[in-house]
Write a structure and sequence with these properties.
17% strand; alpha/beta; Aspartate Aminotransferase, domain 2; four-stranded antiparallel β-sheet; globular; seven-stranded mixed β-sheet
């Protein structure tokens, strides 16, 4: 265990209010598998954040949410477009391919963001029966590079997808951070842009575990997803532990508070790093991630004291993540050791 970690927002513990919700869930007796009215009530509250035609369901993990979303909308002979750096490609051990039996078409990007111009050449090669057929564009908001799609960029991708008989899915593991960065509502960033499915991450933003998957204008897919969720082992029997966390997460905008703080800490970290001559920040700091090139000789000794990942070994680019409980004192200590 490192006393200070910039490795991932997963490394932080749960917010005290979330732990209080867990304690409340531990009292009394509840029906299992979300088969009580309370879970449905909270799911409806979350769905309402994404528009009147949205339906939500709870799952255990972000990978589970990604797989379930894509499984619900794709056939085995179809294809999913995603950035080469996307979580579904790099960090889910082939889970999407295993469960959907469909093909991932990965596209290199400089900032983690897809555009229709990057996708079109691949579609042009998929015109006949010998090829996997285009079905879903999957993007991350925020991306694995910490960059954020603007509302116009999301709408352009959704319009392009629909014009080509495809759908747009958003991996929203850090959706809260992106919404804070854009200063918009969840509905403005999803339903109003034409998004079909989106996950609403909680684990990286102060919850102990649990994610929500939101279907927008896809009632039949949502109905099918109930069974896929069970097959994917994402249906937790003691659902109340997710339900009460998620209720607390959206109550009094806790998700905004935690995401705002994490984003602000990343901005502060970037400001402090930019003061150091031999360090170069490589991506816009829009959420709670800072990517920077460090002098190679300082990385190993720093990693003995602080946890963080080297993102690109070839050019000594590191990823530094801030969390809901990152403090300026932690950042100042890190900066002090860099310049020592």
């Amino acid at each position: 265990m490192h006393p200070i970690s910039f490795g991932s927002d997963n490394h932080s513990g749960a917010h005290p209010l979330i732990l209080k919700a867990i304690e409340t869930a531990n009292n009394g007796f509840w029906h299992g598998y979300g088969e009580e009215e309370y879970s449905e009530k909270v799911q409806n509250k979350i769905a309402a954040m994404f528009g009147k035609n949205a339906k939500a369901m709870f799952l255990m993990t972000g990978t589970g949410a990604n797989v379930l979303a894509l499984q619900s909308l794709i056939k085995s002979y179809e294809a999913i477009f995603c950035a080469e750096t996307s979580h579904i490609n790099m960090h889910e051990a082939g889970a999407v391919q295993k469960f959907t039996q469909s093909r991932l078409i990965t596209i290199p990007t400089t900032d983690g963001k897809l555009t229709k111009e990057l996708i079109i050449p691949h579609i042009n090669l998929m015109a006949d029966q010998h090829m996997s057929q285009p079905r879903i564009i999957s993007i991350s908001q925020a991306t694995e590079y910490g960059t954020v799609y603007s509302l116009n960029e999301i709408k352009a991708l959704a319009d392009f997808a629909h014009a080509n008989k495809m759908l747009l899915y958003i991996d929203g593991a850090r959706l809260a951070n992106a919404a804070i960065s854009l200063g918009c509502t969840m509905e403005e960033m999803t339903a109003q842009c034409g998004v079909d499915l989106v996950s609403f991450g909680a684990t990286k933003n102060g919850c102990l575990f649990g994610e929500a998957l939101i279907f927008i204008n896809h009632d039949s897919a949502a109905a099918d997803a109930v069974y896929y969720r069970k097959q994917l082992t994402q249906l937790i029997s003691k659902m109340r532990y997710i339900t009460l966390q998620m209720e607390t997460y959206i109550e009094n905008d806790l998700w905004k508070e935690t995401a705002l703080h994490a984003n602000q800490m990343a901005q502060y970290l970037a400001e402090r790093l930019s003061e150091i001559k031999n360090i170069t920040i490589t991506q816009p700091v829009q959420v709670n991630a800072v990517f920077a090139i460090f002098p190679k000789e300082i990385i190993p000794p720093l990693q003995e004291k602080y946890h963080f990942y080297t993102w690109n070994e070839a050019r000594y680019e590191v990823r530094l993540m801030c969390s809901w409980n990152t403090t300026k004192d932690m950042i100042n200590a890190f900066i002090k050791d860099i310049v020592a």
